[in-house]
Amino acid sequence: MSRIVNVALGQLGPVQRSDTRERVVARLCEMMREAHALGAHLIVYPELALTTFFPRWYLEDEAEIDSFFEREMPNAATQPLFELSRQLGVGFYLGYAELAEEGGTRVRYNSSILVDRGGRIVGKYRKVHLPGHAEHEPWRRFQHLEKRYFTPGQRFGVTQAFGGTIGMAICNDRRWAETYRVMALQGAEMVLIGYNTPVHNAPAPQHDDLSLFHNQLSLQAGAYQNGCWVAGVAKGGLEEGVDSIGGSLLVAPSGEVVTRCLSKDDEVAIARCDLDFCAVYKRSTFNFDLHRRPEAYGLIVARKGETLAADGTPWRD
Ligand code: CDV
C-alpha cells in the first residue's frame, strides 16, 4: 500500500452566527472539490467548523446552547460532505460540537472525526485540553467558555487510516508537549489538528503579537520532537467582531513547514506527505526505546501506556 498521503489544509474563513450549517457545509464541499482537483487524499478542516465559535458568549438558555451541537454524525446538514467524500475519494477531518447521550445523561464535547476515502467514520476524538474559564468574566472583551460548555475528553488515541497511524487533536491541545508524545508513543505518523485562536489573549494580552509565532512554534516542535507530520488548520478572520489567526500549516517530521495558507479566508493548501519519512527520525534522534529515560521523568506516561513513579517502579496510588 502506498505510504504517500496528499494532505490538503481546508482553512475556513469566519462563520457568523447567522450562517446556516448548510451554508458552511457548501463551503467545506467547495474546498473538498478544489482539494480533489489538486490531488488530495485527505482534507483537514478546523475545530468547531460547522458553526460560529460560540464559547465567546456567555449563554444560559440550554436550548440555545444545544443549537450549536450535533446529536449525530453524519446528520442531514453534513450528509452532502460525506457523500462528496465517497464520490471523490477524499477523506476528511472535521471538528464539531457533539451532544452525546451516556447512560441517560447528556454530555457535551468538543469533538472531531476522521473519515476515510470511502466516506466512512474511522476515528473520533474528544478534546482533552479545554482552555478558558467556566464562569462569566465580564472584564474580558469576549468570553472563552470552553470549560463551561464542554466536558473534557479522556484520552489520546491513534487510528489506522490512510496507510499509516493517524493521531487527532484539537486547538489548545497543540500547545502541550504531551499531546504529540502520547500519540507518538502509540506510533503516530501524522497528527491532525483544527483550531480557533483569537489574536487577543485576554489573560495575557502581551502575547497578542506572538499568536501566530506560538502557533507555528507549537506545530513545528510537536512534529520534529516526535518524528511525525503535523497538520494545523484554522478557522480565522473576523468572526462576530473577534479577530482570529489563520496561519494554517503542514509540518514535516523534520520540523520544516511544507505548505501554509496565506489568507484568513476559505483557502486550500496541499502537500505530498510521505509517511515513511517519519522513520529516519523515529530510528535516530527520537528513537524512544533507545534514548528516552522515563525512569528520570517522574509521574508521567512512560512507555506504551505504562505509568511510572519517579524511581522507575510501577506507579501505585
Ligand atoms: N479553541 C482554543 O482552544 N483556543 C485556544 C485559545 C483560548 C488560546 C488556543 O489554544 O488556541
UniProtKB/TrEMBL annotation:
One of the entry's Gene Ontology molecular-function terms is: hydrolase activity, acting on carbon-nitrogen (but not peptide) bonds, in linear amides
Name listed for the protein in its UniProt record? N-carbamoyl-D-amino-acid hydrolase
- List, alphabetically, the Pfam families matched: CN_hydrolase
Indicate the secretion signal residues.
none
* Domain CN hydrolase, residue spans: 5-277
Record's InterPro entries? Aliph_Amidase/BUP (IPR050345), C-N_Hydrolase (IPR003010), C-N_Hydrolase_sf (IPR036526)
What are the UniProt keywords, alphabetically? Hydrolase
Task: Report whether DNA repair shows up as a keyword of the record.
Answer: no
Protein's UniProt keywords contain Cell membrane: no
Originating organism = Malikia granosa
